[in-house]
Amino acid sequence: MKALLIFAFTVALSFAQESELYVLGVHPHGIVIFDGTRHEIAGQIQTRGRAPKELVPSPDGKFVYTTTDGRAKLEVVNLETRSIDRVLEITPPGYRLTIYGLVLNGKGDRLYVHVKPVRELIDRYVVDPPQIWSVDVATGKTQKVAEVPQGVAALALTKDERKLIAWGRDLYYIDVAQNRITDTFPLMNQPSPTAGALNTLALFIQFERSGIFSIPYYTRDPITAKDLMGLVNLDVANGKVDVVELGSPIPLYSAVVSPDRKHAYAVMNQLLAIDLEKKRITQITDLERTRYVANISRDGKRLFVSGAAPFIHVYDTATLQLIKTIELPGDPSVTSFRALPAR
Amino acid sequence: MRHMRPLNKKAARIDNYVVSRTTDEDVVALQSPPAPQRPHVPMACSLMFTPGWEVDAAGGTAGLCQPVERDIYDCFVSCYWPAQVPDHLNNAPDWTSKCASATKDWRNLDLVFP
């Protein structure tokens, strides 16, 4: 009997270790843990604030940091106890914060957040400049890193952790030691009149599998007056950017790059497969409804698509055939759909 | 028919400029007539326009979210469409709390009157 129990425990443990786990927020107060191996919901955690948006897993996969209550609260989610450990109180008295952009350092002890502070005075609101703060995860103490232009939606941290990359109207490279923007990659503000502005929406952040933070862009060629689309691919480790033009526009919300960096998949009212080496769209599948976000399995064979309705759809990346649909307890809306690190 | 005529030198200069811009040129070669200017509406959502818009790049709605209920929860938190939905910051923070899925339970959304 004892041997049987040990065997069962070992099998269960190995099964759990092999499972690829993903997290996404659901309406009105939840985080869903999705098992990407078995294609089922592995757990659900109640958040204190409503509508979780950004999700950042800790390097050990034990915690997830999430923004809730209209991007105003910062909650620490314990994945082992399936509960909220605490809420990081980073809002100074008399202020209201809106958080767009959250990233954790490699040790997992320091968060960087992009906040839009509003001072709530008795007779008026005063909008302070958007800025990036570093947050000590243990104490919740904040420190201003740098001010950034309006429009930043996402943050990334280079592998050497010297530079933060803020994705807004342009890409801003912030030197963490110098506390200032030291470089800019132009998207909307193109230096040449012959280049059209690249319009991006960096709300969907999923680059765990490839290290490439990929966002669709739209532009109008100022010479030919033709509308064009493509992908802005940011290598998070070193901050290098690759702009991949794909031709006539198709409405897209987000994209994810395969682990081998050879393919990308983009989604909105259609699902697109993109060959990044040939820089062309290879497959298009019409979706019956809008979906916001996709993530990809570790082996690159399965695509998990969600957002905008209470479902996760599993697709075969080779054929774009729908394999399975999993119902969720609520709408994910604009939430990150993050892969948890292997434990 | 001209309804206005210039009364001073500056107005005459403006009038001459407008006439020069609108009069056919002597040599047109193979030029096509200029395309009429239309507003440029980018594809899908964007952080560049606050608030957002309600037409797609072609001036229709086919390029927007389908159906609109799928997009409603983020019209008021992430995508800057605050005018079209209740104010979740001050007056109606819980107007969606009884409705986990807008496409299925939209009748459970609170009615909010200004």
Describe this structure in words.
The complex is a heterodimer of chains A (343) and B (114). By secondary structure, chain A is mainly beta. Helix content of chain A is 5%, strand content 50%. Chain A contains 1 helix and 29 strands. Chain A has one helix spanning 2-18; strands at residues 21-26, 30-35, 40-46, 55-57, 63-68, 73-78, 83-88, 95-104, 110-120, 125-127, 131-136, 142-147, 154-157, 163-167, 171-175, 180-185, 199-200, 212-220, 227-235, 241-247, 252-257, 263-268, 270-275, 280-286, 293-296, 302-306, 311-316, 322-327, 337-339. In chain A, strands 8, 9, 10, 11 and 12 form a 5-stranded antiparallel beta sheet that branches. Chain A is globular and about 55 Å long. The two termini of chain A are 29 Å apart. Mean pLDDT of chain A is 92; it is low at 9-16. Chain B has 114 residues and is mainly alpha-helical. Chain B has a domain at 38-114: Quinohemoprotein amine dehydrogenase, gamma subunit structural domain (Quinohemoprotein amine dehydrogenase, Irregular), CATH 4.10.940. Chain B is built from 3 helices and no strands. The longest helix of chain B has 14 residues, at 9-22. Chain B is elongated, with a radius of gyration of 25 Å. The model of chain B is unreliable at 47-52 (pLDDT under 50). Classes of the chains: A mainly beta (343), B mainly alpha (114). The interface between A and B is large, with 44 and 36 residues.
